[in-house]
Amino acid sequence: MQQRIKIQLGVRVTAINREQQCVLFSDGARVGYQRLLIATGSRVRRFSGLVDEGVKLHYVRTIADARALREVLAPGVRVAVLGGGFIGLEVAASAVSRGCAVTVIEPASRLLPRSIPAEVGAFMLGLYRRHGVDMQLDTTPLAINRHPPERWSRLIAAKCLQTW
Ligand SMILES: Cc1cc2nc3c(=O)[nH]c(=O)nc-3n(C[C@H](O)[C@H](O)[C@H](O)COP(=O)(O)OP(=O)(O)OC[C@H]3O[C@@H](n4cnc5c(N)ncnc54)[C@H](O)[C@@H]3O)c2cc1C
Q1: DSSP letter string over 82-104?
Q2: pLDDT tens digits for range 136-159
Q3: Domains along the chain?
Q4: C-alpha 19: how far from its chain's center?
Q5: Pocket-testing residue among 9, 86, 112, ligand 1, by greatest number of atoms within 8 A of Cβ
Q6: Single pTM value for the model
Q7: Which of 32, 44, 92, 136 could cross-link with 22 by S-S, CB 3.0 to 4.6 Å?
């Protein structure tokens, strides 16, 4: 059956004109619509707290990101993973299997709270802990320091995790 789907490659949508119900393309063309679905994906959520200069911070989104991370995951390296979602847990599993000492820091009180039932989250928590991953739940990172702070009382957070 004819699907009546037109694919346009090599162009970006640069603007949406809602009054005229059309989208504008990077090559100057425009296409009208009655209903518009925006499915442009998502971006990596960057850490909003202070990050000391010199901290080796990796965001994992693309294959290039994953390859760059793989380069630094060596036995004995201490790794802090911010976020106990699917990607964070996959990174933690890879790092621990490469002999790294891994801490996962997750603001929620359990793993994968948006995507799996509590029982499965509890199972995952036990599984990762049995593999030696230090799981810090109910913990929101506020800053990433290159070195431990000079005076512990200067910390805003209730705890400071020394992960590297
Ligand atoms: C590291 C990592 C691992 C993952 N692993 C898994 C996994 O194992 N299993 C799983 O199910 N999911 C996985 N996911 C999630 C999965 O990749 C996403 O859920 C999925 O790609 C989202 O699809 P999408 O169509 O919303 O966005 P995308 O796949 O990002 O597609 C968006 C598209 O929009 C295009 N676009 C952007 N801006 C414009 C514009 N202005 N004009 C025109 N086009 C534009 C982009 O070029 C792109 O082609 C993973 C994600 C990451 C980052």
Answers
A1: E--SHHHHHHHHHHHHTT-EEEE
A2: 999 988 888 877 655 443 434 445
A3: 1-41 (no CATH), 50-154 (3.50.50.60)
A4: 36
A5: 86
A6: 0.80
A7: 32
